[in-house]
Write a structure and sequence with these properties.
The complex is a heterodimer. Chain A is mostly helical. Chain A has a domain of 63 residues. Helices cover 69% and strands 4% of the residues of chain A. In chain A, β1 and β2 form a beta hairpin. Chain A is elongated, with a radius of gyration of 19 Å. By secondary structure, chain B is mainly α. In chain B, 67% of the residues lie in helices and 4% in strands. In chain B, strands 1-4-5 form a three-stranded antiparallel beta sheet. In chain B, strands 2-3 form a two-stranded antiparallel sheet. In chain B, a hairpin with a 2-residue loop joins β7 and β8. The longest helix of chain B is centred in the N-terminal third of the chain and has 50 residues. Chain B starts with a helix and ends in a 23-residue tail after the last helix. The chains are: A mainly alpha, B mainly alpha. At the A-B interface, α1, β2 and α3 of A face α5, α9, α11, α13 and α24 of B. Chain A: Keywords: Membrane, Transmembrane, Transmembrane helix. Chain A: This is DUF4212 domain-containing protein. Chain A: Pfam families: DUF4212 (PF13937).
Chain lengths: 91, 618
């Protein structure tokens, strides 16, 4: 599929955008759950469990959440690669 | 007597550190200067966005160095050490923002292209007023931020090379000046890549060493989890009357932790010097991966900082509680300090040298209140009873606390400089681009020739360096407060309007402008009123924080977290007003369609100009 000339209206990529939004919603829900749930709202409850020698909630707040953030961004980049190819909008 | 016997030793240790520091600083600065010279540029595109050919992984390292400032490197571990579990507001606030950035802003802004954040705001909201507002915000946020960086440079020089703070600041200005003025974004990018490796090595070496000493694993993240330091710290803390280190909500209540964390996240995603880095990569895909690399590199430091914080807390409590206090002594250069000793197993008094060294800088003060000759760290209103330790020295002092070799002390100092200089450079470029590109050239000389544009950009960057240097030498009292201000403003202004600009096609000029104004004003006024004692020099704040004494936020809404409320107000006002006013013109809706699709971002070698946003296809 070739790009339209600069003067014409771009053709909306509705399906691509909808799937992008879905991916973002799922990943950001996990993000919010880990950052605000595990590290703030449920931290005291989680602290009754241990990971190694640390209370679990404390570990999430000072280590675990950051690992999850990293994985989320990587997953996003990989999934979007797939969607870019599928909808032929890749550069 | 004691003093005279130790002096040669102390002197020798100090000299070795000074020689190592001098050596490392000279070598790294030569490298920075060389890169600045090698990547000198002749075109605005290279000056502002490094010609858009930066590989994702290199941009990740540059973003990490750009983002991790003197605050991350020097201050954060100390802050966490004092806050315990609640220190996670900084850790998660400053890393969680990258998730928002990676999914909600960076790829679309890269597709849009151009040079600056105000470029996007102006085009998307078809308004030159919006451009001015955005450019002024960017300048304000960056100036306040950069002043703190220059101060950091001055302090590190003052401590390790024993020059005056102002001399340190001037040296820093010259170095940043050369690589930023000559190379612009291109020079800055490649310098930042090198600075990242310097700063991360400098941070990890003492952390690994400390982890190896205190636990059975030298990987700090593992030693942190498997070692028994947490239990030991909790025990000592309780003995001294502090709340346990791993117990949450002892310093901030739950609601404040939530608001501060959210404001820092949205602020991170909205800070112009971070966003602009994503303009420098080749395409949308590279922007996504670059966010991943950036967070990976940042997490190397951010997952180690809490470990360092806890280990340092343990070492300090363990070493200083019950230490013997000597008589007031004068050192070689006539600065008085109080020597402290630790009694070893054979009953011999061993001097604790790092305490003496830092007393000479005034950052540790000892006061034997009960005159019993023994240091007590008991909790008095949240502070140690008989010793005051400035939080900012923790990272710089750790190698000395752990008695590591002088070269480690030196490399940490070099790392602190790399962190401060790389961030300063990124901020200076934002100031220069906003002033030169968005304000001056755009409004006064739209037809300026290429050499003329570069000339103006360089003049502006020199001006910004002078202003930053001035604030570094004579810092106004409120710099520390203003960092919270910068984040709050970025969260309440840039983040919502960029987000809505991409995700809400119906968002128009009226909605965005009023949302931005309400968000900024609300946040700024709340911070200024609550901190008017510091910011405006009043005797007392003009306003006490809201909701004080309420059951859900007993200490009141802290000004650091108010950006989260400003952001919510911005969203509500923007969406409401936009639905009551006419939709944006069709060409703007087309622009939104086009930024949502990766294909057609500018090829790195493509030359582009002001009108390229519409003609977006190669």
């Amino acid at each position: 599929m070739s790009s339209p000339p600069p003067s014409s209206r771009p053709e909306p990529k509705v399906a691509y955008w909808r799937q992008n939004l879905m991916v973002i919603s799922v990943l950001l829900t996990i993000w919010a759950f880990v950052a605000f749930g595990c590290s703030i709202f449920f931290i005291e409850w989680l602290n009754q469990f241990q990971i190694g020698n640390l209370p679990l909630g404390f570990w999430f707040a000072q280590q675990g959440s950051m690992y999850v953030f990293l994985v989320l961004i990587l997953v996003y980049a990989l999934v979007m690669d797939y969607l870019d190819r599928k909808h032929d909008v890749k550069e | 007597m004691d003093f005279i016997e130790q002096m040669p030793l102390l002197g020798a240790a100090m000299t070795a550190t000074r020689i190592w520091t001098f050596g490392f600083v000279t070598i790294t600065f030569m490298i920075y200067l060389y890169i600045g010279w090698k990547s000198r540029v002749t075109e605005s595109g290279e000056f502002y966005v490094a010609g858009q050919g930066v590989p994702a992984i290199a941009n990740g390292a540059a973003t990490a160095a750009d983002w991790m400032s003197a605050a991350s490197f020097i201050s954060m571990a100390g802050l966490i050490s004092g806050l315990g579990s609640d220190g996670s507001v900084f850790l998660l606030g400053w890393t969680g923002g990258y998730v928002l950035l990676a999914m909600l802003l960076a790829p679309y802004l890269r597709k849009f292209g151009q040079y600056t954040v105000p470029d996007f705001v102006a085009k998307r909201y078809y308004s030159e007023t919006a451009r001015i507002v955005a450019a002024v915000c960017a300048v304000f946020i960056s100036i306040t931020y950069v002043a703190g960086q220059m101060r950091g440079v001055g302090i590190v020089f003052a401590r390790f090379l024993e020059v005056e703070t102002w001399q340190g600041v001037v040296l820093g200005m010259i170095i940043v000046g050369v690589f930023a003025v000559l190379g612009g974004m291109k020079g800055i990018t490649w310098t930042q890549v090198v600075q990242f490796f310097v700063l991360i090595a400098a941070f990890l070496i003492p952390t690994f060493a400390l982890s190896g000493m205190l636990t059975d694993s030298s990987v700090p993240q593992i030693g942190f989890t498997t070692g028994d330091i947490a239990e030991k710290v909790n025990l000592i803390q309780e003995d001294l009357g502090f709340s346990s280190y791993t117990q949450p909500f002892t310093n901030y209540d739950m609601a404040n932790v939530f608001f501060i964390m959210f404001a820092l996240m949205a602020g991170t995603a909205g800070l112009p010097h971070v966003i602009v880095r994503f303009y420098t990569v080749a395409n949308v895909r590279a922007a996504r991966y670059s966010a991943f690399w950036a967070l990976l590199f940042i997490c190397l430091l951010y997952t180690s900082a809490p470990v360092l914080a806890m280990f340092a807390r343990y070492s300090i409590l363990n070493t200083l509680e019950g230490a013997r206090i000597g008589e007031v002594t004068k050192s070689d250069d006539d600065v008085s300090y109080i020597p402290v000793y630790r009694v070893d197993e054979e009953g011999k008094e061993v001097p604790i040298q790092w305490v003496d060294t830092w007393q000479k800088t005034g950052l540790i003060t000892i006061d034997d209140k009960n005159k019993d000759g023994i240091l007590s760290l008991k909790n008095v209103d949240g502070n140690f009873d008989e010793v005051k330790i400035d939080k900012d020295i923790l990272v710089l002092a750790t190698p000395e606390i752990a008695q590591l070799s002088p070269w480690v002390v030196a490399i940490v100092a070099t790392g602190g400089l790399a962190a401060a200089l790389s961030t300063a450079a990124g901020l200076l470029l934002v100031i220069s681009s906003s002033m030169a590109h968005d304000l001056y050239v755009h409004f006064f000389e739209p037809n300026a020739s290429e050499p003329r544009r570069l000339f103006i950009a360089r003049i502006m960057i020199i001006g910004a360096i002078l202003v930053a240097g001035y604030f570094g030498i004579a810092p106004p009292g409120f710099i520390g407060e203003v960092v919270a201000f910068a984040f709050g403003l970025a969260a309440a202004s840039f983040f919502p309007i960029i987000f809505l600009g991409i995700f809400d096609k119906r968002m128009n000029r009226q909605g965005a402008t009023s949302g931005m104004i309400v968000g900024i004003l609300f946040t700024a006024i709340y911070i200024i009123l609550c901190r008017s004692d510091r910011v405006l020099g009043f005797d007392e704040p003009l306003m006490t924080p809201w909701f004080q004494g309420s059951s859900w936020i007993p200490n009141g809404l802290r000004p650091e977290g108010v950006g989260a409320i400003g952001l919510a107000l911005n969203f509500i006002v923007a969406i409401t007003i936009s639905r009551l006013t006419p939709p944006p013109p069709p060409e703007v809706q087309d622009l939104v369609e086009s930024v949502r699709v990766p294909r057609g971002s500018h090829a790195p070698e493509a030359h582009f100009d002001e009108t390229d946003a519409e003609a977006d296809n190669p």
